[in-house]
C-alpha cells in the first residue's frame, strides 16, 4: 500500500498522470498476462509523460480500492491526475491507452 501512496504522490509532484493498472494474479490471469507486454511497451515509451503503477486485484489489501473505483473486470486502468481518477479504461488496446495518456499528459 505504501508503494501506491508513493506512486500517487510522485506523479502529483511531477504533474504527470498516473496509470493505475488493476490486474489479477489469479482471476483473469490470462487476459492480464496478454496485456503485460503491451503495458510494459507503453510504460517504457511514455515514461516521461506518465507514471505507471500496478495493483493486484486479488490481494486482499487492495479489495477496498477496487470496490471504491468500481473495478469489475480485469485489467482495468485508472488514469489519475492529482488525487482524482479522471478516466477508467477496461481492457484497452495499446492505442486506446496511448490516446488516454496523450490527452492527460502535459505538453512541453
TrEMBL record:
Domain of life: Eukaryota
Pfam families: Thioredoxin (PF00085)
Database matches in InterPro entries: Thioredoxin-like_sf, Thioredoxin_domain, Thioredoxin_H-type-like
Thioredoxin domain sequence ranges: 1-106
Protein name: Thioredoxin domain-containing protein
Species per Swiss-Prot/TrEMBL record: Miscanthus lutarioriparius
